[in-house]
């Protein structure tokens, strides 16, 4: 089966790049600006992320924003985060080597993320280089977000691969559900934001705890 794999699909936050500090800092800035006294820690924010920036903002504000207030905070969050998203973000150790290895084998590389599209492109191109990935699929307002398979299937269509020719890597239940909904083999990674137990509950094909195992699946 491995010989027919032509594409590797990666989640971004918590899978390729550690982004938690900058996401937390942007939310904390808004909370302080508007007088909210929540004191979330890193573990809290690791639970808040995964369903897109709007859901992150909603959770950071304790679910107490009205629909109008949520839209207003989301609109304020996006440019704020875009300005600060590279302050502390970095690729996990070993990721670059594994990606280079896959590229040397002719494997197409895709990023499929619930991060807003502009931020996703900016981050990926800054950290990995412009044109390094064959496709970057972020969230466009009004389009379905993961775990809906829309963005994943669109990415595969863009690079000319079928679901049977792809493997999906992610660090959360949202990612495992996305892969399942798209009909793609799922690989859970434990170096990101969520636990082994959360991944295991979704029954992925395999769970790996180090990036060095990525290349062994091809």
Task: Summarize it.
This protein has helices at residues 20-33, 42-48, 53-60, 67-84, 95-104, 117-128, 150-159, 173-182, 196-200; strands at residues 7-10, 17-18, 90-91, 108-116, 135-139, 166-170, 185-189, 206-208. The chain is of the alpha/beta class. It is globular, with a radius of gyration of 17 Å.
Topology:
Elements: E1 7-10, E2 17-18, H1 20-33, H2 42-48, H3 53-60, H4 67-84, E3 90-91, H5 95-104, E4 108-116, H6 117-128, E5 135-139, H7 150-159, E6 166-170, H8 173-182, E7 185-189, H9 196-200, E8 206-208
Parallel strand pairs: 1-4, 1-6, 4-5, 6-7, 7-8
Antiparallel strand pairs: 2-3
Helix pairs in contact: 1-4, 3-4
Based on the model shown, name its key terms.
218 residues; alpha/beta; six-stranded parallel beta sheet; two-stranded antiparallel sheet; 16% strand
Write up this protein:
With 218 residues, the chain is of the alpha/beta class. It is 43% helix and 16% strand. The protein is built from 9 helices and 8 strands. Strand 6 (166-170), helix 8 and strand 7 (185-189) form a beta-alpha-beta unit. Helix 1 crosses helix 4. The mean pLDDT is 95.
How many E-type strands?
8
What is the overall silhouette?
A: globular
State the helical fraction.
40-55%
In the predicted model, the low-confidence regions spanning at least 5 consecutive residues are none
Quaternary organisation of the protein chains = single chain
Biggest sheet layout: 6 strands, parallel
Largest sheet: spatial strand order: 5-4-1-6-7-8
Radius of gyration: 17 Å
Strand fraction equals: 15-25%
Global structural class: alpha/beta
* Overall pLDDT level: 95
- What is the N-to-C order of secondary-structure elements (H for helix, E for strand)? EEHHHHEHEHEHEHEHE
Distance between the termini: 9 Å
User: Helix count, per DSSP?
Assistant: 9
């Amino acid at each position: 089966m491995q010989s027919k794999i032509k594409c590797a699909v990666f989640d971004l936050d918590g899978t390729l790049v550690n982004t938690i500090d900058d996401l937390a800092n942007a939310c904390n800035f808004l909370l302080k600006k508007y007088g909210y006294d929540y004191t979330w820690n890193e573990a809290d924010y690791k639970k808040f992320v995964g369903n897109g920036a709007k859901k992150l903002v909603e959770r950071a504000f304790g679910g107490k924003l009205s629909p109008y207030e949520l839209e207003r905070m989301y609109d304020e969050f996006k440019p704020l985060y875009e300005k600060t998203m590279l302050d502390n973000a970095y690729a996990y150790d070993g990721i670059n080597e594994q990606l280079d290895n896959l590229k040397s084998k002719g494997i197409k590389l895709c990023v499929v993320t619930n991060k807003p599209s502009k931020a996703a492109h900016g981050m990926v191109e800054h950290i990995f280089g412009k044109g390094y990935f064959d496709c970057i699929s972020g969230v466009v307002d009004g389009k379905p977000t993961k775990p809906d398979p829309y963005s994943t299937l669109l990415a595969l269509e863009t690079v000319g691969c079928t679901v049977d020719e792809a493997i999906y890597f992610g660090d959360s239940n949202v990612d495992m559900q996305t892969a399942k909904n798209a009909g793609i083999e799922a690989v859970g990674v434990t170096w990101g934001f969520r636990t082994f137990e959360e991944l295991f509950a979704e029954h992925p094909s395999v769970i790996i705890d180090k990036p060095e195992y990525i290349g062994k699946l091809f």
